[in-house]
Design goal:
By secondary structure, this protein is mostly helical. Helix content is 76%, strand content 0%.
Length: 176
Amino acid sequence: MGSTRFVKAMCAVVLFNGSLYLSLKEEAIAGEKDDLAKKYTEDLRKSKDAKVRVTALQELGSLAQIKKSLAKDALPDIYKALEDKDAGVRAAAAETLGKADEPYEKAGSVLVKLLKDDKEEGVKIGAAKGLAAMGTSAKDSLPALREIQKANAGDKKSKLGAAVKTAITSISGAKK
């Protein structure tokens, strides 16, 4: 009889702890993500190393896809990174900007300008990926994307052509 009571008491404790864990798990994970966003924002803001800034931008982009507000504090630094001398940083910033849920009216023209004017293909690819991440809200960028697609039509191995094609598909809402 005593062992039955003990087993029931232990089951009650396990059940209580399990339900407590499940109810607090989201808050704990959200706190971790906030801490990560702050760390990557600081890395982007203060690091002199381009690789560190690229990693910070990529991680901020990933976090923004989970919860848009996680990249909000980093937005001024993301815009600043679009003008970085390092092409890898500019490319990562362009893609991250698209993932950060900035309105097209604010970010779209910047990404289209990079897509058209930057000398580095990697930056153009990052801008195309950023526009693709914006989805249907970036419809005004379709003429510029189609122009670049036409210019790259002959090159089947063009990474830029593939990125632009993906962006057009994403923005126009067409199924792949």
